[in-house]
Amino acid sequence: MKPGSTLRILLAQGPAPALAAAGAALAWLALAGDSYTIRLATLAGAQALLVLGYQLVFGHAGALSLAQGGLFGLGAYVAALLSLHVPWAMALTLPAAALAAMLVAAMVGVAVLRLQTHYFALATLAVAQLIHLAAVNLETLTGGANGLAGILPVVPRGWPMLLLVWGLFGAAGWMVARVLAGLAGPVLDLAREHPQAAQSLGIDVAALRFSAFVAGAGLAGLAGALHAQVVGVVSPDVADMPVMIGCLIATVIGGRRAVLGAALGAILLTHAPEWFRFLENRHLIAFGLLALAMVIVAPDGLAALVTDARRRLRPPVTPTSAPAPQPPTVARAAAPGTLRLESVGKSFGGVRALDGVSFEVAPAEAVGVIGPNGSGKTTLVNVVTGIIAADAGRISLGSETLRDRAAYAIARLGVSRTFQQAQLVAAAPAEDAVAAAAWRRSPRPSLPAARAEASHWLARLDAGSDAARPCGALPAGRRRLVEVARALMARPHLLVLDEPGAGLSRSERAALARHLRAVCAEGTTLLIIDHDIDFLAACTNRLICLDRGQVVADGPVEAVRRDPRVRLAWFGIDHEEGAA
Ligand code: ADP
Ligand code: MG
Predict the structure, then answer these.
(1) Distances in Å between the alpha carbon of 580 and those of 528, 551, 567, 570?
(2) Ligand sitting nearest the alpha carbon of 384
(3) Ligand 1 atom 16: the closest Cα is on which residue?
(4) 376 in contact with ligand 1, CB cutoff 6 A
(5) How far, in Å, are 254, 464, 490 from residue 485 at the CA level?
(6) How far apart are CA 55 and CA 60, in angstroms?
(7) Which of 211, 197, 202 is nearest to 441 (CA)?
(8) Does 540 contact ligand 1 (Cβ within 6 A)?
């Protein structure tokens, strides 16, 4: 191997570059660093922890929290108060500050995480303001506007503190990176970008968001405590809006999701006032402009630029022939049962989308649903799978009531679905999109194992060649196949498909119908919505026709096809289909 390519591999892979960069920075500090430089570098480390926490909330959970700065301030005050009043418990200050912030986040998180984005932002802003107001007004405790002085550090300031702060960042960053490199990576992306699809795989998206919010708060509290210990004083400024704004800007500039981005953004934020000193007090303007430029030029931040450069350095991989995918041997959820709808109704304002819908689907039966556009087919799928709540009637699967159950809880009973508009993370390769279905398994498989199984399911649907392609690059019909594979990998008892054949060629549809027949023959119950009666005739034995929210026909495929009410429903809306 040429020395050049060894260097390339070192630069392009593994933690080596991060360690090398850290080593170089330390060497530079050791040679050139006066106490001021070291202090600044230490404060940058505390900022990096704050931003790393914010990445969990904002970048990974996709929640625009404005409480992160307030929680940083809370951690700073907890560290200050413990150091001044309980000096013998110094060792506990850092964990105590993190815990206090997590506790506050847990208390407000339960209430505010349900809110829509902008209300969530406002609610978290209010939390931050409360912390700031408490710092200003609880004078006997916090010293009011004067703050508190004489805060002791857990280790001496200077080199020991620098190493502690960046060591904590390294440890936390390594843990986060490790988790994200596994199955949690694609699962978090799906939960953020398509929460309904994640729920339909049994993933409790609200619980994920809550965990991210609380973990992010813990890092904020820790960062605040470290900051207070480096500086030695706290004032209400540590809980004020500029902290939050700085954190947000550093996250945008560094990168919303890469650990490296947290370090880069924080270093830039803490050092910008130095570098832009010639601008005097206007350095914030320069920083704001820089943030604006980043949003436009590199929305994924500096970290993405570095990652892209590393990817370009990486020597091309010679494709090895993939091992023949093993047929999965995963047990299914609970026992199968009959799907039963009794007088189910759902209105949207004045529109009666479902109106007294009743039918049953026996285990391992395959039933097709037809009906003109707007007849309530998708609404039917949504109420059965818990994406929207029915407002009348009963829905059950075997002995389990489905109505008013959360979508993820219904999925855990063995119900899988696809969506009329495929809900796939555009940047994720198809195999990762499918692999997310393994998240609820116990034991949870590794990402490579889940990918191997995913490519098996894709191959089974003749979509094996799409496995490595990003979902966003696939044509609409192929994206639907990826969704079908994902639903199959969840090993459902009941599989509900919303127009799976749309966008596929005639021959692809025929092949899909064959595969679905085979799935049914293995004992899976199928409920398939489609416009193409020939497609449904090929994969089901029974058709239900909906018109204006009501079941107008239900019976063997050929009988329903000839039913005059069905012909009328089709004629009224769709001449081609009706004439066919
Ligand atoms: P289909 O899938 O058969 O085309 P849908 O179930 O999507 O029909 O829609 C049935 C009716 O309910 C339509 O009139 C549609 O406009 C209305 N509808 C569906 N979803 C919503 C919603 N979220 N808000 C308001 N109206 C809706
Ligand atoms: Mg529809």
Answers:
(1) 20, 21, 10, 10
(2) 1
(3) 374
(4) yes
(5) 36, 10, 9
(6) 6
(7) 202
(8) no
* Tens-digit pLDDT profile for residues 522-565: 999 999 999 999 999 999 999 999 999 999 999 999 999 888 88
| SS3 letters across 518-566 | HHHHCCCEEEEECCCHHHHHHHCCEEEEEECCEEEEEEEHHHHHHCHHH
What ligand 1 atom has the least distance to the C-alpha of 375? 3
Low-confidence ranges of the chain (pLDDT < 50): 1, 318-321, 324, 573-580
Ligand 1 atom with least separation from CA of 380? 6
Give the Cα separation of 268 and 215 in Å (integer). 24
List CB contacts of 510: < 8 A, sequence separation 6 or more.
Answer: 535, 538
What pLDDT does 539 receive?
A: 94
Distance separating alpha carbons of residues 218 and 222, to the nearest angstrom: 6
Element (H, E) at 491: none
Distance 357 CA to ligand 1 centre (A): 15
Sign of CA dihedral 253, 256, 260, 265: positive
- Kindly state if the Cβ of 389 falls inside 6 Å of ligand 1: no
**Distance, CA 367 to ligand 2 centroid (Å)?**
16
Query: 556: CA distance to ligand 1 center in Å?
Result: 26
CA angle 536–541–547, rounded 5-degree value? 60
**Position in ligand 1 atom list of the atom nearest CA 376:** 6
So what's the pLDDT on residue 462?
93
- What residue ranges in 252-411 does DSSP mark as E strands? 339-348, 351-361, 366-370, 392-397, 400-401
Interval between CA 394 and ligand 2 midpoint (Å):
22
For the chain, what are the domain ranges?
Answer: 7-240, 339-579
Classified by CATH at the fold level, domain 339-579 comes out as Rossmann fold (3.40.50)
The residue whose CA is least distant from atom 12 of ligand 1 is 353
Tell me which residue of 235, 276, 227, 259 sits closest to 55, measured CA to CA: 259
pLDDT at residue number 110: 85
- Determine if ligand 1 sits within 6 Å of the CB of residue 351: yes
Candidates 373, 375, 401, 372; CA nearest to 386 is 401
The residue count of the chain comes to 580
Distance 289 CA to ligand 2 centre (A): 45
Q: How remote is the CA of residue 374 from the centroid of ligand 2, in Å?
A: 7
Model confidence pTM above 0.85: yes
Measured from the alpha carbon of residue 383, the closest ligand is 1
CA torsion angle 101 142 251 197 (round to 10): 30
Task: Note the pLDDT of residue 117.
Answer: 76
For atom 17 of ligand 1, the residue with the nearest CA is: 353
